[in-house]
Amino acid sequence: MTTAYEIAKQGGPHKGLLRRYANDPDHLIKKAIKTYEKRIAEHRAWIVNPMLKVRPDITEKEIHYLTTRKWPDDVHRLEQERDVMMGIVEERRRAKST
């Protein structure tokens, strides 16, 4: 299985994110990972209960779009971005142990 980190290293999606954080210290990357985890949890909560996020006058069609397309897509993207960050930390950890 190819990870989002490996794909980014090969120039695929999230390569810019990888470049952006490649030289940042571990503590900043770990902070970013926690932020991604928080945003993923928020989006998952919205999928379960859209009223946590949307106005009361939103239509059922709009809610359906948000809960079946928009927010799940956001979760997927955020998970990939988090995994890129985790890959940076893991690769550094491996390099230090050799």
Structure, described:
Helices cover 76% and strands 0% of the residues. It has helices at residues 4-9, 15-21, 26-48, 60-97. Helix 3 runs antiparallel to helix 4. The chain has one domain (4-97). With 98 residues, it is mainly α. The longest helix has 38 residues, at 60-97. The chain has 4 helices and no strands.
Key features of this structure:
mainly alpha; 4 helices; 98 residues
Task: Describe the structure concisely.
The protein has 98 residues and is an all-alpha fold. The protein is built from four helices and no strands.
Please write out the topology.
Elements: H1 4-9, H2 15-21, H3 26-48, H4 60-97
Detail the poorly predicted runs.
none
Order of helices and strands: HHHH
The overall pLDDT, averaged over residues, is: 95
Q: What's the Cα radius of gyration?
A: 16 Å
Q: Helix amount, in percent?
A: over 70%
Through-space gap between termini: 24 Å
The computed structural class is mainly alpha
Shape: elongated
The total number of structural domains is 1
Number of helical segments with 4 or more residues: 4
Strand content: under 5%
The total beta strand count reads 0
Strand count, sense and closure of the main sheet?
none
